[in-house]
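Hi there. Long-time user, first ticket. I'm pasting a complex I've been working with (about 494 residues overall). I'd like to know whether the download I got is complete or cut off, because the file seemed smaller than I expected. Thanks.
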Amino acid sequence: MNLTVNGKPSTIDGSERLNVTGLLAALKVAQAAYVTVELNGEVLEREAFDATIVKDGDAVEFLYFMGGGSAAFPQSRR
Amino acid sequence: MKMSREYRLDTLLIHGGFEPGPAGATTVPIVQSSSFAHDTAEDLEDIFRGRKAGHVYTRINNPTTESLERRLALLEGGISAIATSSGMAAITLAVLTIVRSGDEILSSASLFGGTFSLFRDTLSNYGITTRFVDPSDLRAMRDAVNERTRLIFVETMGNPRLDVPDLAALAAIAREAGVPLVVDATVTTPVLGRVKELGADIIVHSTSKYINGTGSAIGGAIIDCGTFDWRRESYPHFEPFVKKFRQFAFSARARKLIHKDLGACPAPMNSYLLSEGIETMALRMERHCDNALRLAEYLAAHPKVAWVNYPGLAPSPWHETAKKQFGGRYGALLTFGLADKAAAFRCIDGLRLAKNLANIGDTKTLVIHPASTICADFGPDEKALMGVSEEMIRVSVGIEAIDDIIEDFAEALGAI
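Hi, the file is complete. Here it is re-exported in full:
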């Protein structure tokens, strides 16, 4: 499935139906408990994450309110 | 692996929010760095825009502090937490996130002196008015709500009055008024009860007290329960945050604006000390409460003691409410009265184990004469509202052997 995630092309392997909760896990989104998800320009309520299915061609935006949020103790690529 | 949210409170105190650090460390690493480098300009742009997780600057966020914040949110059943440099910073930031110039706070009159001063003296200079009402008088509380009220503020146990407001009833008043209930739960901690379940929308703590436990660090925290709907005409300043962050609107406005701009962040070392302290809080609170009840009973029977105020004693007018709200535990603060101020001073001077200082929630037993110290700047009427009198001593009962605590008071009282 091809998506646009935060403005960039992204491919999710597998043919199973994927809800937003599954998408957060598949993309290993850091601090998922604190992220706001915008799907095709609409901000989703957290209660809707399980019931909302992501489709091929969708545009997804993840937004953190913590001034960046965090991956705990991240390692630099360098 | 079980999600941490499924664990019981005693386990969450130790494991909640912890994520393994470098080299398999089992304590939270102290990330003593002002700022954080990123690989590309785009990475840092994404972090600043909130599109990507990452750290920027310790005033904004810090890995050590975030670990503490995750744990505090789990303990209170909140959706997020913000750690601050002190309890007063937590109250200031929580309140300023909600109110603007021209707005009003409806507050309990039975408050910690610092909070009373913040509301009465400091915020009033910026056009924010506070109405102080006895929180046990529910009709008076309801009657004090007006069209400018933007929040109701109360302590779980008023310090030092030690009254115990009916939080569920106050939450009902707040719901009816369409304003959030902000609760300072410092004195009871989540160990005695999660006040979210009684209707708190925002919880504040001085983490310097029982959460730290040993008097080694100053800190505060704000917990967003995610229960208040900010989509109301009376909160237009929340509109952009509701639009963008929905349930996190309060957290976002607090974090991205007020906390960021006022800069009351904790030092990473203090976040570490608080994370260490919190692990033993359940055990400590059990001993604190047991010791406080024993000391209260001893003092109540002492011929030189005029009166004892402790919610755990049946004569306290707040005993039943405290019992209902906090599972038969009544905290570790008590006050008692002697003949007069001179007798109170002689008693404090005669104590050898208990320390005479301005703090509560330490492992050590602490005493203070509030009227001449922490409440000295208040007039007679205000002192009366706060439950402070000249002959009164406040005790923060520690976790030493109770027989040693009682002997210390017995000797001091005997020498009066």
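A couple of notes from our side: Helices of chain A lie at 20-26. Confidence is low (pLDDT under 50) at residues 68-78 of chain A.
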